[in-house]
Amino acid sequence: MSGLDPWLLERLVCPVSRTPLRYDETAQELISDAARLAYPVRDGVPVMLVEEARPIDGVATA
């Protein structure tokens, strides 16, 4: 089972690009392919602060 509530995931968007996010359960991150940022999920809580996000490389993974 995912560590993130599917209801919540459907409603979250990237604060930079305003596009939907995808959840990487292994890395515990929410990925914004549009902004190329990964937002951490700590103890099941998404940290949606741009200053907490890390840049991701140009290759998107499923």
TrEMBL record:
Annotated GO CC locations: cytosol
SUPFAM superfamilies assigned to the protein according to its UniProt record, in alphabetical order: Trm112p-like (SSF158997)
InterPro entries: Trm112-like
Family: Belongs to the UPF0434 family.
Name of the protein in its database record: UPF0434 protein C8J24_1329
